[in-house]
Amino acid sequence: MSTERIGIIGAGIVGLALARWITEHRPGVRVTVVDKEDRVAAHQTGHNSGVVHAGLYYRPGSLKAVLSRRGTALLRDYCAERGLPYDEIGKVLVAATRDDAARLDDVRRTAEANGVPGIRMLGPDGLRDLEPHVAGRAALHSPSTAITDYIAVAESLADDVRRSGGRVHLGAPVIALRQDADGAEILTGDPHGERVRRRFDTLVICAGLHGDRLARMAGADDDLRVVPFRGQYHELAADRRHLVRGLVYPVPDPRYPFLGVHLTRHVHGEVMAGPNAMLAAAREGYRLRDVAPADLRDTLTWPGFWRLARRHWAVGAREMAVSASRAAFAREARRLVPEITTADLRPAPAGVRAQALTRGGDLLDDFAVSTHGRVVCVRNAPSPAATSALAIAEHLGAAYLPAR
Ligand SMILES: Cc1cc2nc3c(=O)[nH]c(=O)nc-3n(C[C@H](O)[C@H](O)[C@H](O)COP(=O)(O)OP(=O)(O)OC[C@H]3O[C@@H](n4cnc5c(N)ncnc54)[C@H](O)[C@@H]3O)c2cc1C
């Protein structure tokens, strides 16, 4: 009997976690990961806030709710085993207005339904004890929300895969994909023009910002488009880091759950304000001036984009203003920490979120996966997919890979 071969496109945290799961749970299967970049974690995994989300706001029963809880436990154990940073510095969700305070109670109920441990409501005094420089009329504290270094986690997963006999080919962009009844074949090219054909029994696409394009090549319906949202960060000056001890977030607006500048401490001590969310003119557009005509065309020709824009143009305009001006960014951060001034903020590298958008103009909220013949496509893996990656891998392995 010939060896079963599974290919994975994408050496972000999702693809690598799946590759490791296969090496651990499907002995004898040969796993190969390919990525177009010359390093792992080059895109979303390497440009995020580094937060391990405890599962406070996800709809109970959703994949996000279930897999973030499971993923947190798996990631904590994995980091402990490998000596990787994992620090439960805790998070406060801060209510500035009466409306926020009412929504905070909804979040508490959702968090309880999701089984988030240790959460408690705080009044202004309790908030001051935890975060002396943060202002608010009430807060919800999640002590188990943690921070980690997702690049280090991804590198460690890749090492595990290699050590177990799997392969991780970097600098190998997939430029063509086709499948027949027995398997799927990809063609990769490298900067020196060398083309390599690789054939697998099963192929899994974990390609983040390019996931929709590869899914279409695999025969998926043209029902979702990845729309890139750029998230700008600013770093707090070193002598102002004491203003934030842990993770400080506004109460999310249920209509725009990923909006709202927050303040996050990172594993090496830096404190970041951000990210905001603004439509990017390039899928890997880390700078405001980056434009990729093909990416922009993909967004602007998508009917869902115009429906979204019509409904939310005012919010979009505000996010653009915040991206363009440090003073506007500081104003947002001051809603949480009144002492922050424009002079305290330094521009820091941005990230770009891959967000699936339907034809009808709805942002797909939950994680989404579909199968097309021999190809499994991860169609939507936005935050908290880094938190959840080890559990997403289990889910993909159990529900989507052929049983042995
Ligand atoms: C600003 C920001 C902040 C975030 N904060 C958090 C957070 O605090 N906590 C959290 O849990 N999540 C957070 N997220 C979300 C999280 O980072 C992502 O959900 C997660 O990293 C997705 O991982 P991935 O492996 O699916 O995608 P990626 O990390 O984007 O990996 C996809 C890989 O596919 C490769 N690829 C694409 N096309 C091809 C091709 N044609 N050929 C070969 N390779 C290809 C890319 O090079 C890339 O390496 C944040 C995201 C952003 C952008």
Structural commentary:
With 404 residues, this protein is α+β, with helices and mostly antiparallel strands. It has three domains: 1-87 and 147-222 and 367-404, FAD/NAD(P)-binding domain (3-Layer(bba) Sandwich); 91-143, no CATH class; 224-358, D-Amino Acid Oxidase, Chain A, domain 2, CATH 3.30.9. It is built from ten helices and 21 strands. Strands 5, 6, 7, 14, 15, 16, 17, 18 and 19 form a nine-stranded mixed sheet that branches. The chain has a six-stranded mixed sheet with strand order 9-2-1-13-21-20, sandwiched between helices. Strands 3-8-4 form a three-stranded antiparallel sheet. Strand 16 and strand 17 form a beta hairpin. It is globular, with a radius of gyration of 21 Å. The mean pLDDT is 94. Flavin-adenine dinucleotide binds at residues 9-15, 34-37, 42-45, 47-51, 53, 173-174, 206-210, 214, 231, 275, 351-353, 381-387.
**What kind of sheet is the major sheet?**
9 strands, mixed
User: What hetero molecules are bound to the protein chains?
Assistant: flavin-adenine dinucleotide
| Overall pLDDT metric | 94
Q: CATH fold name of the largest domain, please?
A: FAD/NAD(P)-binding domain
Please tally the β strands and state the result. 21
Sum up the overall morphology in one term. globular
N-to-C span: 13 Å
Proportion in β-strands: 25-35%
Query: Helix tally?
Result: 10
For the record, what CATH class of the largest domain applies?
Answer: Alpha Beta
Report the structural category: alpha+beta
Low-pLDDT regions: none
Instruction: Specify Rg, calculated over alpha carbons.
Output: 21 Å
Instruction: Using the 3D structure, state the CATH architecture of the largest domain.
Output: 3-Layer(bba) Sandwich
